[in-house]
Amino acid sequence: xxxxxxxxxxxxxxxxxxxxxxxxxxxxxxxxxxxxxxxxxxxxxxxxxxxxxxxxxxxxxxxxxxxxxxxxxxxxxxxxxxxxxxxxxxxxxxxxxxxxxxxxxxxxxxxxxxxxxxxxxxxxxxxxxxxxxxxxxxxxxxxxxxxxxxxxxxxxxxxxxxxxxxxxxxxxxxxxxxxxxxxxxxxxxxxxxxxxxxxxxxxxxxxxxxxxxxxxxxxxxxxxxxxxxxxxxxxxxxxxxxxxxxxxxxxxxxxxxxxxxxxxxxxxxxxxxxxxxxxxxxxxxxxxxxxxxxxxxxxxxxxxxxxxxxxxxxxxxxxxxxxxxxxxxxxxxxxxxxxxxxxxxxxxxxxxxxxxxxxxxxxxxxxxxxxxxxxxxx
Length: 378
What we know:
Largest sheet: 7 strands, mixed, barrel
Shape: extended
Order of helices and strands: EEEEHEEHEEEHHHHEEHHHHH
Helix content: 25-40%
Oligomer: single chain
Low-confidence stretches: 261-295, 306-378
Strand content: 15-25%
Structural class: alpha+beta
Distance between the termini: 126 Å
Mean pLDDT: 74
Radius of gyration: 45 Å
C-alpha cells in the first residue's frame, strides 16, 4: 500500500519512524454528468470571475475570505512558517480507556507502518504496551495543511490511527429528542429486548452493500443491451405504527422466521415471551358422541342419532351395532321378526342389543307387555 505521509510517533523521548497508509477505501459507484440530448460529457471549468477566462491549476492559489468579502491571499510559504510541532510528528498526549472516546468524533482511519528496521523495536514496544493496558493513545498530528486529533489503538498486530474531530466540531443534539414526556411500559421494553435477542449478533465480514451490487448488475445489463425490468417494491407498510405491542410481536416473529429459529426454547433470554400460534381444531374420537341427539319415538323407544361420520367410524363393531339397531326397530311390529333377528344376528350383536334394551328407558318391559295386552283384548 502506498503511504500518504511519512513522519514519526513521539512517545515521550522515544521516536518511532512510521509511514501513514489509508486503512479504508471507497467502493461507491460514481457517475458522470452528461448532456441528455447527445450523451456528451459535462465538465466543470475553472473560470476567473473578473476576466471570465479559464484558468489552469498552476495559476490558482488560496485565500481567506473576510467577512466583508475581501480576499486575503495565503501562500504555502506562509503556512510553512507557522510553529506547527506536529508537522511531521504524531505526538501522543495521553492514554485513556477506549470508552472515553465518543464515537461521534470518529473520522478517517489509517494504518501506521514501521518505517525501516530500526523502527521495529520501539513500534512493537508501543503496540504491546497498548495491548496490556487496554487503553488507547490520544495524539495530535498534522495532515493536509491542518492540525488534527487522533486515536491510536491496536488492530491485530498493527497500530491503527483514527482521525478524530475536535470536541468543538461536534454539534449539540438540540431539538433532536422527541417533544414532551413519553412513557414506555415494561411490556414494550420486554418485547424490545426479545427482538434484540432474536436478531442477536452478526459476523461483520458477512455484511455487504446490496445497493452497489444492484447498480453493477444494472450497468452490466444496460451495457449488454438487455431490457431491465423494475423490481417489485417490498411491502414495508405505510410507516405508521398503530399498535406498538403488535408491531414488536410481529417483528420478533419475522426475525425468528428469517433466522430459522422460530419455535426455539423460550429460556434463552427472550424476556420469557412465548410464540403465539392459533390453536388448530383436530378431530377427536369422542367428538361424535358429543354431537349425538337423543329423543323418544311415539312408541316409547329411545333413538340416538349422530351427525358425525367420525363417530360412526370410531364405534367398535359398527356393523353389528347397525344390524342390532335396525332389528330392534323392526321388532316393535311383530314378535316373529324379533325371533328371526335373534337367530341370525352374531353373538356379539346379541349382547350389544341386550345391553341397549336393558339400558333404554322402559324398552324391555314395553316389548314384553305389548303381546300380552293384545291377547287379553282378544
